[in-house]
Amino acid sequence: MTPLLYFDDGDRWLVVASNGGAEWEPGWWLNLQAGSAATVEVDGVRAPVTGAEITGSERETLWRRMNQQVFDYESYQRKVSRRLAVVALTRSSR
């Protein structure tokens, strides 16, 4: 289990693959990219999810929102050379 800060965005949860400001991608994000099954638990309710990176102008908008309303991810971004992924976790039917 990996606890993550998240933003509830209607039918999906938004998270940032920050790995606490470490230079390498977090394992949970690498696993999702490889197609591994995942489950989230929010308020005691578990749900199977898939993960997809948000890109382009939507990513920029959500990046600002995540920094304002969830955590100062920009402080982590300044520490690393990789671009921190904004990831949408969406319920799946598995």
Per CATH, the superfamily is: Electron Transport, Fmn-binding Protein, Chain A
Largest sheet: 5 strands, antiparallel
Order of helices and strands: EEHEEHHE
CATH class: Mainly Beta
| Strand order across the largest sheet | 1-2-5-4-3
Radius of gyration: 13 Å
Helical/strand content category: alpha+beta
**Low-pLDDT stretches:** none
Count of distinct structural domains: 1
Tell me the strand percentage band: 25-35%
The count of helical stretches stands at 3
Please, what is the average pLDDT? Answer: 96
Q: What's the total number of strands? A: 5
CATH topology title: Pnp Oxidase, Chain A
Shape: globular
CATH architecture: Roll
Q: Level of helix content?
A: 25-40%
Whole-Å distance between the termini?
Answer: 19 Å
What this model shows, in words?
It is globular and about 35 Å long. It has a single domain, classed as Pnp Oxidase, Chain A. The chain is built from 3 helices and 5 strands; from the N terminus they run E-E-H-E-E-H-H-E. It is an alpha+beta fold. The model has no long low-confidence stretch (mean pLDDT 96). A 5-stranded antiparallel β-sheet has the order 1-2-5-4-3.
